[in-house]
Amino acid sequence: MKTLAIIAQKGGSSKTTLAVHLAVCAVQKGMAVAILDIDPQGSAHKWFKARESSPYLAAVQGQAEALSNLLKKAKQGGVDLAIIDTAPHSDKAAAIAAKLADFVLIPTRPARFDLETVAATLAVVALTRTPAAVVISAAPRGKLASDAQHVLRGQGFPVFDVIVSNRVAFSHAVIDGRSVHEYEPGGKAAMEIDELFKVISDRLDI
Ligand SMILES: Nc1ncnc2c1ncn2[C@@H]1O[C@H](COP(=O)(O)OP(=O)(O)OP(=O)(O)O)[C@@H](O)[C@H]1O
Ligand SMILES: [Mg+2]
Known about the structure:
The chain has helices spanning 15-28, 43-49, 67-76, 91-100, 112-128, 144-154, 168-174, 180-183, 188-204; strands at residues 2-6, 33-37, 57-61, 81-85, 103-108, 132-139, 159-165. A 7-stranded parallel beta sheet has the order 3-2-4-1-5-6-7, sandwiched between helices. The N and C termini lie close together (9 Å). The model has no long low-confidence stretch (mean pLDDT 97). By secondary structure, it is α/β, with parallel strands linked by helices. It has one domain: Rossmann fold. 47% of the residues lie in helices and 20% in strands. Adenosine-5'-triphosphate is lined by residues 8, 11-17, 39, 41, 43, 88, 137-138, 164, 166-167, 170-171.
């Protein structure tokens, strides 16, 4: 079993959106997936409860302190990929998740106040020595996203080439517990998630 943690100190950076979409993407590639939601808001867990049940996707909500046990149970239950969705503004929970993960994804919107928080997130993750990369997410049309990549790389931060655009499909799909793969199969949003999943899979060696 491999574990991906999605961490960002900034609220609304699309952690949950990416967690649920990457989860469905992995299921569609034949993996058994568990979402471990350690955000007290429980958005990923609520999304899961709105879905039709499937033997290949599970979600549980818990506290960061329970993560180690939840991961053990997931492994025993035959899960191939565990995806941890975290709350913003919690260094402690973020550090626990990063330490238990094989790879950390740090989403950020390509806007000044968001980009300024990436260094703080990476500093928490760096202490755990778990490999990590930033992805620009919810990017509007235009050059903001590539400019943001340039700025972050200039600070020496690892940044994926893949960009997840701001697309209404992401908001529409989750209303009734779907993903863009189910809402608009083969659409641009699904293709971007596929690309992101591919680069993460390479890093996780799955
Ligand atoms: N690529 C995207 N395109 C359009 N809307 C998006 C995209 N990504 C996220 N959003 C929207 O932005 C809002 C915040 O996203 P999300 O809840 O995933 O962020 P979060 O980082 O999990 O927030 P929190 O820190 O509160 O947990 C949601 O309304 C979501 O639908
Ligand atoms: Mg969230």
